[in-house]
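Q: I'm building a small set of examples for a reading group on sequence design. Run inverse folding on the following structure and report the sequence directly after it, with nothing in between.
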């Protein structure tokens, strides 16, 4: 556990959580210690990359489920399952550029306190909206659902 934690950059608690969620697996020694195969480091790198672009745990699981069973994934396996990320990244880049360009006047929060705002909330109409919590007007590609953290 310690070696995989050190090499992957994930805390041991995160490794246990990902194992419980079925994203990685380990065998147990007769003494109960976890033993990870070397391929788990690649899966963890994939999990980190997928999370960094905004995939949720269910989406990451679905992607990892596409990997072949019984053999080490190849470069083409990884390319195949990550190919559609490009459109998602392009949408996030565009949203970030729009946010950057309007940052001095609006951050997409949905407030109604600024005199001039490209994205306005006149009369605080968002107060009664189910989308009101947080930065309600932040572009969709930048709005990640908050997931419970591993404990």
């Amino acid at each position: 556990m310690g070696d995989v934690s050190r090499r992957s950059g994930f805390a041991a608690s995160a490794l246990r959580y990902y194992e419980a969620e079925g994203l990685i697996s380990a065998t147990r020694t007769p003494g109960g210690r976890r033993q990870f195969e070397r391929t788990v480091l690649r899966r963890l790198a994939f999990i980190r990359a997928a999370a960094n672009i905004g995939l949720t745990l269910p989406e990451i699981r679905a992607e990892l489920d596409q990997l072949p069973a019984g053999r080490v994934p190849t470069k083409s396996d990884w390319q195949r399952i990550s190919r559609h990320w490009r459109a998602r990244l392009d949408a996030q880049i565009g949203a970030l550029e729009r946010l950057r360009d309007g940052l001095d006047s609006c951050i997409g929060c949905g407030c109604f306190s600024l005199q001039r705002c490209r994205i306005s909330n006149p009369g605080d109409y968002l107060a009664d909206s189910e989308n009101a919590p947080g930065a309600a007007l932040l572009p969709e590609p930048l709005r990640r659902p908050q997931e419970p953290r591993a404990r």
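The chain has a mean pLDDT of 79.
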